[in-house]
Amino acid sequence: MTATVTDPRQEQSLRVLLWLVAVGFFMQTLDATIVNTALPAMARSLGESPLRMQSVIVAYSLTMAMLIPASGWMADRFGTRRVYVGAIVLFVIGSLLCALSPSLSMLVAARVVQGAGGALLLPVGRLVVLKTFPRERFLHAMSFVAIPGLIGPLIGPTLGGWLVEVMSWHWIFLINLPVGIVGALATLRYMPTPPSAAVARFDAAGYLLLAFGMVAISLALDGLSGLGLHQASVLVLMIFGLSSLTAYWLHALRRPDPLFSPQLFRVGSLRIGLLGNLFSRLGSSCMPFLIPLLLQVAMGYSPAQAGMMMLPVAIASMSMKRMTTPLITRHGYRRVLVVNTGLVGLMMASFVFASPGQPLLLRILQLALFGAVNSMQFTAMNTLTLKDLGPETASSGNSLLSMVQMLAMGMGVAAAGAVLAAFTDFFGGGGAQTLDAFRATFGCMALITIASAGIFWQLAPQDSRAGVARREPEAQA
């Protein structure tokens, strides 16, 4: 890693770089939170059911998961600054197409374009931080980047609800245009150009196997509700997806330069971090999708009111970022993640008791507590996964983490949509019955999250420490 920086000019450059990366996080989080709040309004405008609008989210996250494996290679091949600017431009174009979409199918297609830009925006920005900052400052740098990025959730739900009521849902995408333009211009001016390095040949065969496997599994989950596929079709998609992922693993074992080398999994912290990210997010990533739907569909909130109710989540998330680093440093990753994963699951399970008569103060406290523990979970999982990677594996490991995150998000929303649809059919479509379906869905997704705590329990003592000295995989063996 880079040596510790003491030059004031270099320190200023690093600070500007952090803010540039935060702009990318801001665009992502603003878009995600606005879309979640506006789904019922979109459904009414497009003539769709609000309980079956998860394809708008799944298409975006699945596209990101598909393209993220190529992001590390593209950053090394074409340069991080060039790729980062291109990602912002593509994201802005996708946002414009979303705003102009006249139907759900066109909106989903536009979200694919937007997701293509996001697939490069998030991992390349994090890769810049990983390659630029010295190891002992990486945890602090990642926490700092996350704080400006959380401004999106802070204003996104309220802004989205206000735009939907005052104007139309189309404006929730147009809001990305000025932010993207400013971010692209600032990146061209301030982001450094790293020296060129030798780039290995792209593993196209492995990429196709991996991408097809992710798409097939995600479509199988979404097919249970959003796509209306029959059970036989879902089963065939699931089998093809799993066989494709198995084929990729066998392909990577015999290829000298695979897309993601199996040798990466010799790093204990990365291995546990990736598995924990996948299964923990599989449960918790559905909450930004479910909560606004619950408030608007089952409790009669307006879009603006539902957006205001998401403010406690964002404020608590921002407040918790500064506390995460000291807690990890004192107690270690294992203890923090095991306990906090259980807390995230319990807070999700608390929505089983949600009702229209619930006191407002209690609901605000419930949302704030969920935002706090969920924020700590994300920061701890991300830094655990990347903390023991060296410069030679940083690009590949970072792309793998981003791919797992987006795949878990898409699968989590698709799974929640399928569970919600199943319980809706079971309880019926009335007002009270719809609330019962939401409650049962929250309970099921909470159990998935709680179960993932067992993964973090497997952390070895040396991998749990928040130390600064990187160990080679050979030394671990």
What's the short story on this structure?
The chain has 477 residues and is mainly α.
Task: Walk me through what this model shows.
It is a multi-pass membrane protein. By secondary structure, the chain is mostly helical. It has 2 domains: 8-202 and 259-476, MFS general substrate transporter like domains (Growth Hormone, Chain: A), CATH 1.20.1250; 203-258. 78% of the residues lie in helices and 0% in strands. It is built from 21 helices and no strands. The chain has helices at 8-46, 55-67, 71-78, 80-99, 104-132, 138-149, 151-166, 171-174, 176-190, 204-223, 231-254, 268-284, 287-298, 303-309, 311-349, 360-386, 391-427, 431-451, 453-456, 461-464, 473-476. The longest helix has 39 residues, at 8-46. The protein is globular and about 60 Å long. Residues 1-5 and 468-477 have low confidence and may be disordered.
Question: What keyword list fits this structure?
Answer:
EmrB/QacA subfamily drug resistance transporter, disordered C terminus, 0% strand, 2 domains, transmembrane, mainly alpha, Growth Hormone, Chain: A, 477 residues, EmrB-like, transmembrane helix
Task: Report low-confidence residues grouped into runs of 5 or more.
Answer: 1-5, 468-477
Largest sheet: none
User: What is the name of the CATH superfamily of the largest domain?
Assistant: MFS general substrate transporter like domains
Cα radius of gyration in angstroms: 21 Å
CATH class of the largest domain: Mainly Alpha
Q: Given the C-alpha coordinates, what overall shape results?
A: globular
Q: What's the architecture of the largest domain in CATH terms?
A: Up-down Bundle
**Order of helices and strands, N to C?**
HHHHHHHHHHHHHHHHHHHHH
By DSSP, the count of extended strands is 0
Distance between the termini: 22 Å
User: What is the beta-strand fraction?
Assistant: under 5%
* Chain-averaged pLDDT: 80
Helicity, as a percent range: over 70%
Tally of helical runs: 21
Structural class: mainly alpha
Number of domains: 2
The CATH topology of the largest domain is given as Growth Hormone, Chain: A
